[in-house]
Amino acid sequence: ELSLGCGITILGAVFIPMLLLSLGGVIWGWYQISEQHRLLSTAEQTNAVVISSSVESQANTGTRDGETFYTPVVQFTFTLNEENYESTMVSPGRDAGPHNWADEMVREFPAGRKTTAYYDPADPSAAFLLLDYQTDPYLWIAFASLFAGVAVIFPASFFWPFPKVRAGMAL
Q1: What angle do CA 75, 53, 131 make, to 5 degrees?
Q2: Could you tell me the pTM of the whole model?
Q3: Please, what's the largest Cα pairwise distance for the chain?
Q4: Could you tell me if residue 116 is left (phi over 0), alpha (psi between -120 and 50 degrees) or otherwise beta?
């Protein structure tokens, strides 16, 4: 027979780490959102030329089905203040995704194309091609918040004084 102390220990061993990991996910997502916003709001534009464009695949060995992620590798160059820079970042905040997304990026930026690049004035080598927000950090926050809610509500339900409803009692 389990005592109340044993139940609290089990709940704490499972749900406290779950809560801490969830809060870490929220903090990481918030950091990604603020960094993405900083990059996009302070970015300056310049002319660039695409040198090469290809899709690389990477198998995710952490899943049972071996899901594969695809990265558009669009290498481009640009010159600022007589200094040459090179980058392969298509968009801040996202570097891999489904095959059709990576293919679309490669088709949009073929080798030899002249395009606009955006760079961080504090670090011009951190340049990218698409000036748009990615939803990935928002999804991190949403899922982490859901897990944090479960980590708080589920253990609390063991101690909440729910009213007992008698069988056959009419509402």
Answers
A1: 65
A2: 0.66
A3: 85
A4: beta
Structure tokens of 157?
A: 């339900």
Residue 116, both tokens: 């606009």
Tell me which H or E stretch contains 125.
strand 123-128
Q: Which two tokens stand for residue 77?
A: 């160059």
Note the pLDDT tens digit of each residue in 97-124. 788 888 998 999 999 999 999 998 988 9
Which two three-digit tokens encode residue 91?
């968009």
DSSP-assigned letter for residue 97: B
Give 3-state DSSP helix, strand, coil % of the chain, rounded to 5.
Answer: 40, 30, 30
Q: How many CA atoms lie within 13 A of 17 on its CB side?
A: 5
Q: Which residues pair with 116 in a beta bridge?
A: 47
